[in-house]
């Protein structure tokens, strides 16, 4: 996105705005494309050799700070931390939800993340069972996130853009 003539990318999980000079370079910025429905949860894993449609599905990919958000999240289930925080950066954190370690994204990304996970389950028939870490993903919590964080103008515009590029909707 651009503001006052400067380009920036926002980390979906933490809310960090990173200003960069065009053209955008994932490696130079330290950003990556995060699979909200973790790549290792996909029954087709590794789905990047060769690349399968589910690996590149833009409805599931969000920009994240590689070192501060993507790597700490890894393939942890998303959840709400109610115990010790193990690591945090801005509005994203890794910590305990009861006895389980989870990644909690910023509040404004929770509904988006829930919709991305449910989209992958629906579009590709992926299970959330039988896969380490995916087994621990709380579907009831995702439903709550979906209803508590309804699509905002940015998410709607993003999905329209993806529809124009990819030809399908979430």
Give an overview in words:
- With 170 residues, the chain is α+β, with helices and mostly antiparallel strands.
- The model has no long low-confidence stretch (mean pLDDT 93).
- Helix content is 34%, strand content 22%.
- The chain is built from 6 helices and 8 strands; from the N terminus they run E-E-E-H-E-H-E-H-E-E-E-H-H-H.
- Helix 4 crosses helix 5 (139-148).
- The strands form 3 sheets. The protein has a 3-stranded antiparallel beta sheet, with no helix packed on it.
Describe the largest sheet. Answer: 3 strands, antiparallel
- Can you give the mean pLDDT? 93
Beta-strand proportion: 15-25%
The secondary-structure element order is EEEHEHEHEEEHHH
Radius of gyration: 16 Å
Distance between the termini: 21 Å
What structural class do the secondary elements suggest? Answer: alpha+beta
Percent helix? 25-40%
Strand order of the largest sheet: 1-2-3
Molecular shape:
globular
Quaternary state reads: single chain
The number of helical elements comes to 6
């Amino acid at each position: 996105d651009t503001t006052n003539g400067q380009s920036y990318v926002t980390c979906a999980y933490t809310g960090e705005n990173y200003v960069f000079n065009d053209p955008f370079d994932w490696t130079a910025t330290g950003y990556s494309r995060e699979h909200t429905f973790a790549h290792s949860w996909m029954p087709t894993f590794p789905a990047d050799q060769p690349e399968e449609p589910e690996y590149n599905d833009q409805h599931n990919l969000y920009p994240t700070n590689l070192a501060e958000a993507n790597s700490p999240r890894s393939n942890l289930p998303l959840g709400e931390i109610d115990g010790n925080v193990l690591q945090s950066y801005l509005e994203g954190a890794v910590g305990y939800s009861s006895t389980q370690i989870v990644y909690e994204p910023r509040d404004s990304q929770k509904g988006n993340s829930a919709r991305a996970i449910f989209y992958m389950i629906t579009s590709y028939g992926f299970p959330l069972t039988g896969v380490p870490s995916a087994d621990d993903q709380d579907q009831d919590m995702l439903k709550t996130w979906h209803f508590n964080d309804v699509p905002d103008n940015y998410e709607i515009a993003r999905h329209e853009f993806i529809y124009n590029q990819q030809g399908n909707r979430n």
